[in-house]
UniProtKB/TrEMBL annotation:
E.C. number(s) listed in UniProt: 2.3.1.9
Residue span(s) of domain Thiolase C-terminal: 261-382
Species annotation: Sphingomonas liriopis
Family designation: Belongs to the thiolase-like superfamily. Thiolase family.
GO molecular function, one term: acetyl-CoA C-acetyltransferase activity
Name of this protein: Acetyl-CoA C-acetyltransferase
The entry's keywords: Acyltransferase, Transferase
Enzyme class: transferase
C-alpha cells in the first residue's frame, strides 16, 4: 500500500477567551496556518489535490464550507477545492485521516489537512442553540428512536466527565494535580522554545496566551464545581479559545517530484465508537483497537497525546491502559493550551511531531474523545 507522509505541520498561537485573536474573522484565522504551510514547504499550491478541514459549529461566519473559504482567503489558487469535516472535537484529526487515506489509496498526492475554530465569535453549542431558536429539538431530544435505544436521560459532556471520574476512581485532587502539571509543562515548553517551530505568529502573538503559570493546587481547590456536588471545575477542564493548524500530507511520488523532505510517516489510522451517553470514554477501546491492528504495545509508543477535554478523561485512559503520565502530553495539553474544537486534532499532531523530534522518539500515538461517543487514534513514525 502507498505510504502517506507528513511534510510539515504549523499552527497559530492559541488565543484565550476575549484575547488577542477574538476579533479575527474565522476564515482569516483558518487561512493563517495554510499560508505559513505553503511558504515553509515551498510546494506549488496549484499541485494540491484538496483541502480537508475540521470545524464544528459551522454557522454564521464558519458556515458555507469553511474548508473552501480558508484556502481562498489565504490567496491561493481557485482550482484547489476544500471540504469541511465535523467529527466534533476530532474533526481535524479526522481531516488528517481522510487526507492520508486519499494519498494511501493512490488517488491523491498532496493534501492539506487541518482545522480551525473561532470560539470567541461562535461559541460551543451555537449550532444547537440556533436550531432551538427555530423550534428544532436538540439531537438527543424528541427522537423516538433515540429514546427507545438510550432512554430519556441527560446527554452532557460534564455529566460524562463526572461519571468517568466516579467509575475509574479519579478524585478531585487527582484532577487538580493533573491540571497543574498541564500548565507547568506548557509553560516550561514555552520558556524552552519548544513550541517555536510549530507556531506561526499572528496578530503580534507568538505564544499561546491560555497558559496560566501562576496556577496552584490551592487556587484550583478553591474553585466551585460546575455541577452541584460534583468534582469537575473550570480548572480541570479545557479552555474555550481561538486557534487553527494545518499539515501537508504527501505521497512518495509527490515527495520525489516536488523535492520534499518528510518529517514523519502515517503508521496507523483508527476511529472507533462507544456509548454516546458516556460520550468521552471511546479513547480507551479505540487505543486498544489501534495497537492490536498495528501489532504494537504500549511500550512501543514513545510519546502520547490524549486530549485534555476534562482531566478525568486522560487520567482514566492512562489508568485503564497502564500508560505512564511521563509519556503523555509532555508539553501540556488542552487544560493549559486550550481546545479550539475543530483545530485541536491538528494542533495535537503538530505538537506531537515536534516533541518526537525534540526527544528522539520514533512512534507517537494521538487520541481524543469526541461527541457521540467516538475517538480517533493516529500513530505516526518520526523520520
Amino acid at each position: 500500500m502507498p505510504e502517506a507522509y507528513i511534510i510539515d505541520a504549523v499552527r497559530s498561537p492559541i488565543g484565550r477567551k476575549k484575547g488577542s485573536l477574538a476579533h479575527l474573522h474565522p476564515a482569516d484565522l483558518g487561512a493563517h496556518p495554510i499560508k505559513a504551510l505553503v511558504d515553509r514547504t515551498g510546494v506549488d499550491p496549484s499541485a494540491i489535490d484538496d483541502v480537508v478541514w475540521g470545524c464544528t459549529e459551522t454557522i454564521g461566519a464558519q458556515a458555507g464550507d469553511i474548508g473552501r473559504t480558508v484556502w481562498l482567503v489565504a490567496g491561493l489558487p481557485e482550482e484547489v477545492p476544500g471540504v469541511t469535516i465535523d467529527r466534533q472535537c476530532g474533526s481535524s484529526q479526522q481531516a488528517v485521516h481522510f487526507a492520508a487515506q486519499g494519498v494511501m489509496s493512490g488517488t491523491q498526492d498532496l493534501v492539506v489537512a487541518g482545522g480551525s475554530q473561532a470560539m470567541n465569535r461562535i461559541p460551543i453549542m451555537a449550532a444547537m442553540i440556533a436550531g432551538q431558536a427555530y423550534g428544532f429539538d436538540s439531537p438527543f431530544i424528541g427522537s423516538p428512536g433515540w429514546d427507545a435505544r438510550y432512554g430519556n436521560q441527560e446527554v452532557d459532556q460534564i455529566r460524562s466527565a463526572e461519571m468517568i471520574a466516579d467509575k475509574w476512581g479519579v478524585s478531585r485532587a487527582d484532577m487538580e494535580t493533573f491540571s497543574l502539571a498541564s500548565h507547568q509543562r506548557a509553560q516550561a515548553a514555552t520558556e524552552q522554545g519548544w513550541f517555536a517551530r510549530e507556531i506561526a505568529p499572528l496578530e503580534g502573538l507568538d505564544r499561546d496566551e491560555t497558559i496560566r503559570p501562576t496556577t496552584s493546587l490551592e487556587g484550583l481547590a478553591a474553585l466551585k464545581p460546575v455541577r452541584e456536588g460534583g468534582l469537575v471545575t473550570a480548572g480541570v477542564a479545557s479552555q474555550n479559545c481561538d486557534g487553527s493548524a494545518a499539515l501537508l500530507i504527501a505521497s512518495a511520488r509527490a515527495v520525489r517530484e516536488h523535492g520534499l523532505t518528510p518529517r514523519a510517516r502515517i503508521h496507523h489510522l483508527t476511529v472507533r465508537g462507544a456509548d454516546p451517553v458516556w460520550m468521552l470514554t471511546a479513547p480507551i477501546p479505540a487505543t486498544r483497537h489501534a495497537l492490536a491492528k498495528a501489532g504494537m504495545t504500549i511500550d512501543d509508543i514513545d510519546l502520547f497525546e490524549c486530549n485534555e477535554a476534562f482531566a478525568s478523561i486522560p487520567l482514566a485512559w492512562m489508568k485503564d491502559l497502564g500508560i505512564p503520565h511521563e509519556k503523555v502530553n509532555v508539553q501540556g495539553g488542552a487544560i493549559a493550551l486550550g481546545h479550539p474544537l475543530g483545530a485541536t486534532g491538528a494542533r495535537l499532531m503538530t505538537t506531537l511531531l515536534g516533541a518526537l523530534e525534540r526527544t528522539g522518539g520514533r512512534y507517537g500515538l494521538q487520541t481524543m474523545c469526541e461527541g457521540g461517543g467516538q475517538a480517533n487514534v493516529t500513530i505516526i513514525e518520526r523520520l
